[in-house]
Amino acid sequence: MGNHLLEVKGVDVLYGDVQVIWDVSIHVEKGTIVALVGANGAGKTTLLKTISGIIHAKRGEILFSGKSLTRLKPQEVVDIGISHVPEGRRLFSNLTVLENLKLGAYPSRARPLFAESLERAFSLFPVLKARKGQKAGSLSGGERQMLAIARAIMAHPDLLMLDEPSLGLSPIFVKTIFELIYALNKQKVTILLVEQNIHQALKIAYQAYVLKTGKIAISGRGDELLADPEVQKAYIGERWSKR
Ligand SMILES: Nc1ncnc2c1ncn2[C@@H]1O[C@H](COP(=O)(O)OP(=O)(O)O)[C@@H](O)[C@H]1O
Ligand SMILES: [Mg+2]
Q: FRET partner for 208 with CA separation of 20 to 30 A, picked from 37, 44, 104, 134?
């Protein structure tokens, strides 16, 4: 406790007149994996975009290492150490793997660490080293997701936010991606993980929040929520148990 890297406090977010996030508060303790789970449309992506400065909260406050980032621009948020892997990856398909990784290292904090970061990315994702000269667009879905994560860690973040990294991947790649998230965390990267694959996410999460139509419905330790009959019934059940 008391070691909060990220604090979201009482945040409301609206698109025009339509409110989609209601009084949401979450804490991410340094060095942990925190999962933000919930059904499609619950507001998970919106919350990550708000932390990233892509959209701004109407009310509430967001603190990173105690400093307010509520009014920062996306570039400034990256510069202070938050990287966001958006839903759908968003790579430069016509650029090579290596060129995509170079672009990830553009923040001033990351440039001096380029060689070290590239080494780390290639050791975590050996397949990317093997394919470094290949166009990003020619990679498989799983490899593209790895490249998106590798590009984000090239920015040398203190906090890595992943939006649905397992979405659309085959079961074997889903397993690989979750193992990589775990391995990254072991290298001291704090992770805020958004997932619809609730079972897998809760398994690796230290702390978890269930978002339901824009409000935090349940929160607790990952293993507690995984064992909670209410959570199982509402969110895991048969639909999730096989994933
Ligand atoms: N750009 C937008 N403009 C208006 N409404 C949006 C926009 N993006 C998302 N929404 C709405 O906000 C709600 C939350 O969406 P989202 O954050 O994408 O949820 P999730 O990521 O949990 O699936 C949904 O009702 C969605 O339709
Ligand atoms: Mg989403």
A: 104
